[in-house]
Amino acid sequence: MTLNGDALRLALPNKGRLAEPALQLLRDAGLEVETSTASLTASARNYELDLLFVRAEDVPEYVADGLVDAGITGIDLVEERSPGLNAVLELGFGGCSLALAVPRSASVQSPEGLAGCRVATSFPRLTRSYFEERGIEAQVIEVRGAVEVTPQLGVADAVVDLVATGGTMRLNGLRPIATLLNSQAVLVTHAGQPDERWQPLVAMLSSVIDARGKEYMMMNAPAAALDRIRELIPGLSGPTVMPLADPSMIAVHSVVERANLWRLVPALKAAGARDILVVPIEKVVR
Ligand code: AMP
After folding, report:
1. How confident is the model at residue 191 (pLDDT cuts 50, 70, 90)?
2. What three-state secondary structure class fits 148?
3. Which of 25, 114, 184, 283 sits between 20 and 30 A of 12, alpha carbons compared?
4. How many beta carbons lie within 10 A of that of residue 121, not counting itself?
């Protein structure tokens, strides 16, 4: 790490499922970062930013203790470890939820049914406060890893664990009955950290996050179809409409959600659009 007093210090997960997407986000935002597996630190070549690679679960403590100015990690880990931090920006990856689940064969339908039961989790703080807030007396057992097998081993009656697709829970014969928290990766700063220092970086990251999932669409259409096309693609601030050499025709450009394309393209064609081009967007700066 450069000993540059002015450089911002950012903690990133060194491995696990958040590590690669976090680094990719910085690179997509234009930061030139070279990392090597052996190194715990790195610096951006074209920005005053030093990176420190630590375990995802340790990122909140590094930020809270002021060892770094900000960090990237999951909301779940922030809420469990250092809930007072400022979540400055949701980063749109690492989506999952923290769920309470019971064996499929159990008759329990709600958290209230777990009074007097044992609940295994690697999120003891969040689990305890969840039951306490509801006045339910459950015994919280802290385990590290393999939480979902504890009911089969007979050491717990229920679990509180992270779920993304639900596949792992199903595979282990578990049935979710409540959600404690919805999570994704976030940029967090210390509550006392002035926002201005982070504004340029937050703006760069936001422009990439906004562009993800969006495409730029161009098409030609009969001028008479414009009203229908406008209904179909409202765009960021309405579609751009341009005249063509043939006065009965127009060109329409717009930003669209990628997830809507499969529905949108047939509807546009039915409205008379043709020569439809869809191209990727790198950044959206507002
Ligand atoms: P790691 O254990 O280092 O791979 O990272 C765990 C973090 O990744 C969690 O704390 C969540 O923020 C996030 N995450 C996203 N999806 C999942 C999932 N299906 N299971 C566990 N963690 C997930």
Report:
1. confident
2. helix
3. 283
4. 26
Atom of ligand 1 nearest to the CA of 95: 15
Rounded Cα distance, 37 and 23, in Å: 13
Tell whether the model's pLDDT for residue 4 goes beyond 80. no
Cα separation of the two ends of the chain: 32
Contact indicator for 151, 159 with CB cutoff of 8 Å:
yes
What is the Å distance from ligand 1's center to 164 Cα?
8
Q: How confident is the model at residue 5, as a pLDDT?
A: 66
Region 101-120: mean pLDDT is: 97
pLDDT at 139 over 70: yes
Listed residue (149, 142, 144, 147) closest to 173, CA to CA: 149
The closest alpha carbon to 69, from 185, 184, 183, 199, belongs to 199
* Ligand 1, atom nearest to 163 Cα: 19
Handedness of CA 199, 201, 204, 210 (dihedral sign): negative
- Average pLDDT of span 57-75: 96
